[in-house]
Amino acid sequence: MSDISEKITSLRSELPEGVRLVAVSKFHPVEAIREAYDAGQRYFGESRVQELLEKIPHLPSDISWHFIGHLQTNKVRQIIGKTAMIESVDSERLLSLIDAESAKAGVVTRVLLQVHVAKEETKFGFLPEEMLDYFRERKFEKLTSTHICGVMGMASNTDDMVRVRADFAEIASLFRTISTEIAPDLRGFDQISMGMSHDWPVAVEEGATIVRIGSLIFGERNYNIK
Ligand SMILES: *Cc1c(COP(=O)(O)O)cnc(C)c1O
User: Fold this and answer.
1) CA-closest residue to ligand 1 atom 7
2) Per-residue pLDDT tens for 89-128?
3) How many whole angstroms from 190 Cα to the centroid of ligand 1?
4) How far is the CA of 135 from the centre of ligand 1 (A)?
5) Single pTM value for the model
6) For ligand 1, what atom is nearest to the CA of residue 200?
7) What is the dihedral of CA 183, 189, 190, 194, to 10 degrees?
8) Cα–Cα nearest to 94, from 36, 27, 146, 31
């Protein structure tokens, strides 16, 4: 067994039932993705539009691609219809655009709204209050071709696991406030995507339903691949 397939197999055995593994393959070549695929992996995460579009034709069509990077508005049209889910919707403007382009293309796009809880200034996402307001004002009712499936978030980039756990707890709590108090009628809002290579066990303990794991599976990223 290759290293990649061993990692996939052992992660699978450790993840509780009902938690989906997205293998984050950004900056890794199609051969590496193929190895994971051969080990049974079907959900892959990419963070750049160009890289995703270049990889798709070289890989089996039953792969579910999760887009997890900051999506520039001028690239939305290119990936509509190509993804199983866009996890990183970080503004209302982007959401409206995804909806408009999906309507034009005659498809429904599944998305997660990205929330910013980490204590870093560079991270994208809705602030918690902004996200709550979005649902309080029931703006989602205007969407015709987008299905909001839940929330996505990242913890602060730190070794302090107390801090990391608090961030994940905040993301999960935000999700529950929306799904049980603010918009309990919102159908199919049931996913919490959080947890990466170094912090996924904590994320799972705090309620993740999707984990996004890259370097633990594929090793260090090669930033030289185009
Ligand atoms: C790169 C990336 C990951 C995976 O990170 P690893 O530390 O390699 O597991 C997860 N989520 C997002 C949003 C990413 O950009």
Assistant:
1) 197
2) 999 999 999 999 999 999 999 999 999 998 776 678 999 9
3) 21
4) 27
5) 0.96
6) 9
7) -100
8) 146
